[in-house]
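Handout, section B. The chain below has 246 residues.
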Amino acid sequence: MTTQVALVGGTGKLGTIIGAVIEELDGFEVGRVLTSRSELSELDGAGLVIDASTPQVSIDVVRAAVERGINVLVATSGWSAERIALVRPLVEAAGTGAVFIPNFSLGSVLGSTLAAAAAPFFPSAEIVEAHHETKIDSPSGTAVRTAELIAAARSEQGPVSAPHADQRARGQQVGSVPIHSLRRPGVIAKQEVILSGPGESLTFTHDTVDPARAYAPGIRLAVPFAAQAAGVVVGLESMIDIGIRS
């Protein structure tokens, strides 16, 4: 049996990539493509909702899917742990599944996981992320997720050292980790996690140069996983065995 997918934001850059991958994925078919301005009643009858809309619309898409008893895969940026906490009770009460993927790139997931694993050994951690000038949200969902993973990994050590964090130029803090966002032409997506200690530093860098090729393996993993998921799941790392637990 083929699962009919309602793809919200399917005409955007990420939505187009997701749609192309689903066309080649056994057991799934894009039954309808919605824009960020579509009526959410168009979700009726779908077997899976995939959200690649905008941060402003995304929470309404998730709620609409859950209210209809449909599992949802969220690819839209801007979902922090605090924002996910707003919809978690709805998902659990409905008995559905909501899977939030900040980044479909396997390399990005590995970089963030390795940085989190190393974070307890360094007192300082900062993130510099760069995206194209048309990205409307900052910091990126990937950077927020990375900072949350670092904070969780440092639960015993406590917050990272971030002097002068009250100054705006020191970035936005997430889980005590300063995040610095660049929005400029000539870049697609890049993240650096810089860990520092006495006399040394360690940097994890991930650079996306071809989104369609970089995201496809993660999309292939996430779509069937989301269709069968129960409860709230965050991050592609939940679907692969990296061998490191932060």
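Note. Residues 211-228 form the longest helix (18 residues). Compare this with the example in section A.
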